[in-house]
Amino acid sequence: MNNKGVKLRDIYEASNQKDAFYLMLNMANNNAALTIDNILKSQ
């Protein structure tokens, strides 16, 4: 799985919950600014 530049849409479209969970972890590990504002912009 490519962990660079994970977008919220990737999480929504993940084929299963495990993939979605790992994508969320990677967003956090990449210090993505997970503010409500940025989450809304990224959709």
Structural notes for this entry:
The chain is mainly alpha-helical. The chain has one domain (8-41). 56% of the residues lie in helices and 0% in strands. It has three helices and no strands. It has helices spanning 8-12, 17-29, 36-41. The mean pLDDT is 72.
Mean pLDDT: 72
Assess the beta-strand content as a share of residues: under 5%
Helix content: 55-70%
Number of strands: 0
Number of domains: 1
Distance between the terminal alpha carbons, to the nearest Å? 20 Å
So how many helices?
A: 3
What is the global morphology? globular
Radius of gyration: 10 Å
Condensed summary:
The chain is mainly α. It contains three helices and no strands. The chain has one domain (8-41).
Write the layout of secondary structure elements.
Layout: H1 8-12, H2 17-29, H3 36-41
Keywords:
56% helix; 3 helices; mainly alpha
